[in-house]
Amino acid sequence: MDGIDVREYIPVGCLVIDPVSHLPLQDASLPELDQWRYFHLGDRVRHEYRHHDALIFLSLELQAHLLSSPRLAQYSKLLRSGWIQMSFKTSLETRSRGTVRVHVLPDDRYNRLVPRTDRALLKARLALMKELDRSRSTWQGATEIPTCTTSLGISTPHFAADEGSDGKEQSLLQLFNSIDSPDPRLGDVEDINCRDAMFSLLESRIPGLKTTLYPYQRRSAALMLQREAQTRQVIDPRLVKVQDQRGASYYYDAVAGTCLREPRYYDLPCGGILAEEMGSGKTLMCLALVLATKHLPSRIPDTHWTYSPKVRRRIGSLADMAAACITRNSVPYVAIEQTEQSDFNYTMCLRAIRRNPATYAVSSTVTPKSRRGDFEPPPLTDVYLSHASLIIVPPNLVDQWKQEIAKHTCGLKVITCDDDRYLWFREFLECDIVLLSSTKFEKLMSYRTTPWDGDGMSMSHQEYQRQLNPFARIRFKRCIVDEGDKFGNATYYNKSNLQLGIDQLEVEARWIVTGTPSKGLFGVEESSGSVSSSTPGAGCKPSGRGGMRMIESSGELEKDDLRRIGSIAQLYLKMRPWANRKSEVGDTPADWAAYVIPRKNSRRTAGQKECLKAVFESIIIRHQLSEISSLLPAVDEKIVYLDGCFQDILVLNLFSAMIIFNAVQSQRTDQDYFFHPRQKKALTELVSNLRQASFFGGSFFAPDSIRKAVDTASEFLKEGKVAISADDDILLRQAIELGQLAAADTIKTAGNLFHDVPVYVKDFPGEAGFAWSVDMRNGDPVCTNSRMIYALQKYLKPVLDAPTSLQRLLDSGSFANEGLAERFKGLELQGSTANNSGSGQRPTVQTLAGNTQLGAETSSAHNRRAILKASSTSEDVSVASENGDIAAPLATTQLVSTASAKLSYLVDQIIKYQADEQIIIFYENDNVAYYLAGVLETLQVQHLIYAKSLSRQRRAQYVATFNLNPKFRVLLMDISQAAFGLDMQSASRIYFINPVLNPQVEAQAIGRARRISQKKSVTVETLVLRGSLEEVILKRKGEMTPEEQRKCRSILDDKPIYEWILNAKILPLPGNGALSGPEQMAQLEVPQFIFGRSFSRAVGHPDQDLVALDGNTRIANGEGRAKAMSERRKRRLSVSEDVPGDGPAALSEPAVKRRAGVRFVGFADVGESA
């Protein structure tokens, strides 16, 4: 019988009608309504119920009254259309209330009889599903007022909130960190070749892999292969499994209101996100995956597969037909081996295979024009199957990937696109890895042009094929994007060029490699805080990260993270149903935000939690930190509070004085007030200078500008034209007194004149301290700076161990004259740099109310940038070995103090630990790096500066040198360059010169040294100057929520920090301002000899001891480096092959001559052109 089986309806829940007094109920009919009576279907459903003999129906009159009641009127059309069935009952005990049972017809039943496209009915059903009371007691007929109702008294379905074990709502970060650890299963992989490759990964027995994988690395790499090799089907994540009133299961879509008896299934994407913890070896996992599968070619997509045989121009040989069958079915032929004992020679077979590559045709995205000017249908493009993996990395990681490939693997054929030479697609058929930067990939993808000439003449098909980008002709086995979390910023209508380029490729599997899939998902940190002391009166506090620390995330930050994860899943990984389109027949689009992101001011429902959890477990591969924390080095984090010396406090007060001058005289309202909305740029510059001044600020504010501001303020008070408060009067007088003191301070003046940190040197040779000083004073100790000391070392170098010659030189006037000349040169250098601003005139300094300035440095910036670019490339000018003989006048010359508490502390720490540990120092301002590098240069501490102004090749060379050449003990790194997977595992001590407000930036920086291969514990110290803005920043860092940190793009965006700057105060000066020059400085804990540090007389090349990028060989001299550079310029494309041996082979060795041949395991180059 053709009809609807009533047993197919799902008993979902109930509606309670209260009261029922308006219904036409007679006393005689009440006993009849004490049992369930069904509603009649309307005329729109023409088919009768099957199996309805036992049903008892309501009278038509009562049904009409019920359907016209406010509670059921909006659902009457659902009943008449057959979408639902209802039954009604009242209770003799509570005659004022009635219960309506609602049965819903599943969407996967009777679609031929009951149309499901009416939007009004879909909307009404969704509203009904939200109002139903699903409790068992109500279903049994109890009519008590339900506990979960809306404000209208309507029963609503209740889903448990997403809660953790402690009863609190589980955050997104907690959910991310509780993802099940990888558990690859060999039995789930059907393909025997892939199963063998998985086994080799799990056993870490991979041909060509020189490094043994940790167990967790094996599991992650094996699971990556499993997800590539085996198509997996999962239940539609939009569906929640629910039990109906009979205990049977059905599947419910809480957003669309859809009910299904049987769930929908989707194929999971081939690929995902490798989101292992920072420093856990994600690069090595990817290389292991490539090595284990390099013999497995890509496969023809199911949508392009055809069983039709290839039509040849002429009858092919049996060998050609067999070879075509091998390649078309992706049989792994590369693993064929030839041994001396073998009687077979596979050369002819291999040639036949290369003559018959597997291809399939796709429609090109580029459409040539016809002669008439209209567009013709796009021609078909042949896409070739390959073994190659496409790896796209940030520009600063290209060379690191090359080094990792050389370090961990052998036998891989790698193509690096290092130049603009046109690439022929067949080159990619012969390699295992195509490695290039994201910017290079975008540039190459932009080469695809519309192939028609200016006259509109159509090209031949062959010419058209040649014009296509070579990447579009290859079916890559996988695409790996390192640090690909940037894809989370994309939308359907706003994709990056990188993502648009990848969308044009034929790729079998897509992977993103990142430890932080989104800004708020940077995992759990484990460290042990400790306390130590530094300078007298200074203290050290733990960073507040002791034990296991989970960074809490706010609602808005979570929503932003969820949107990013959704963009990656939908637009890059093409994960269904999120990638569904309206144009697709038989499926429905899925709105990620509606199913996953909680509404404003609401908690995540159980349905959203299950949906999100299903997505996470489907695409993310990540071990829980508890499983790998024992393998990562321990991190001991400290916050070191330093008491500023007189010069530190003087400069901080000088900034406060300028703010006070400006605030009082502008009455805090004029447009030339620092904090006026129109002065935002000036205020930002002022704050930047103020932060730099916590390290050294003596170069700010020339004495003339200080006197001018002081005179203006004094005149303002004297005239009294503007009434000010008593508090402002006190502040202004304190600022005037401070300005007068600063303008007369000779050390402060020296810092401004020479734009370098003044230092004191005792036992200066030759009693010529005046000539070599920067404060123009005689006596001992001598106030000088690092540039003068460097010149002194260079000048005395020839006579270090020649007492007679040294004494003759010191007694003559030439030694003093040299000092005077160097001092004049320093003044002339600063002056010329200031004047050469492009216009030939000295740049003007912005002056606001009260003749106050921002403190901007107007000279030597160009010189500092030059020094940063030439870091660690200066000639060797130090003295003889510590074990050698030094002339007596130089033996006791020592650096005893500096004008910066932070600089003195860092010098003490570097000298103390450099022999046993390598050190990374993170800075925010190039001037700070310049000041520190100058002192390290004089103390012969070998160092490198990783500045953002350096070229990509230079930065990569510095990282390689720091890791491979133990001579270099210190790396100064710009904090903005400390992310994106840089590996500097050789370092075990980290110093932050300034506190970092963003905890994620700090975690990324620490992650450069906290690597899985790190053998030492990592010590991290953050330097904070007492009484400075840094104390407020550090306090706010601990108080701010993640949402506040996300919105705080500048420290001025944080109100407490802004108000601290706004209400600047004058700090008490040590000694009440009456200290001698040496007493104004920060003393070194251990004075350092100026002459007596290890060095030789030979003047080396600037790049001596830097590690070449093409291997581990160190360049001995400039000629060798020039030759190597010349060789690299000659090579337009690097195709290299590593060979087993004692060390890794260079990735940029000259390409093999027989480029057309394919390298087989155990073979030399054989074959002919493909």
Automatic annotation (TrEMBL):
<dbReference type="InterPro" id="IPR027417">
    <property type="entry name" value="P-loop_NTPase"/>
</dbReference>
<dbReference type="InterPro" id="IPR014001">
    <property type="entry name" value="Helicase_ATP-bd"/>
</dbReference>
<dbReference type="GO" id="GO:0008094">
    <property type="term" value="F:ATP-dependent activity, acting on DNA"/>
</dbReference>
<dbReference type="GO" id="GO:0016787">
    <property type="term" value="F:hydrolase activity"/>
</dbReference>
<dbReference type="InterPro" id="IPR050628">
    <property type="entry name" value="SNF2_RAD54_helicase_TF"/>
</dbReference>
<dbReference type="InterPro" id="IPR049730">
    <property type="entry name" value="SNF2/RAD54-like_C"/>
</dbReference>
<keyword id="KW-0378">Hydrolase</keyword>
<dbReference type="Pfam" id="PF00271">
    <property type="entry name" value="Helicase_C"/>
</dbReference>
<dbReference type="InterPro" id="IPR001650">
    <property type="entry name" value="Helicase_C-like"/>
</dbReference>
<dbReference type="Pfam" id="PF00176">
    <property type="entry name" value="SNF2-rel_dom"/>
</dbReference>
<protein>
    <submittedName>
        <fullName>P-loop containing nucleoside triphosphate hydrolase protein</fullName>
    </submittedName>
</protein>
<dbReference type="GO" id="GO:0005634">
    <property type="term" value="C:nucleus"/>
</dbReference>
<dbReference type="GO" id="GO:0005524">
    <property type="term" value="F:ATP binding"/>
</dbReference>
<dbReference type="InterPro" id="IPR000330">
    <property type="entry name" value="SNF2_N"/>
</dbReference>
<feature type="region of interest" description="Disordered">
    <location>
        <begin position="526"/>
        <end position="546"/>
    </location>
</feature>
<feature type="domain" description="Helicase C-terminal">
    <location>
        <begin position="906"/>
        <end position="1049"/>
    </location>
</feature>
<dbReference type="GO" id="GO:0006281">
    <property type="term" value="P:DNA repair"/>
</dbReference>
<keyword id="KW-0547">Nucleotide-binding</keyword>
<feature type="region of interest" description="Disordered">
    <location>
        <begin position="1118"/>
        <end position="1148"/>
    </location>
</feature>
<keyword id="KW-0067">ATP-binding</keyword>
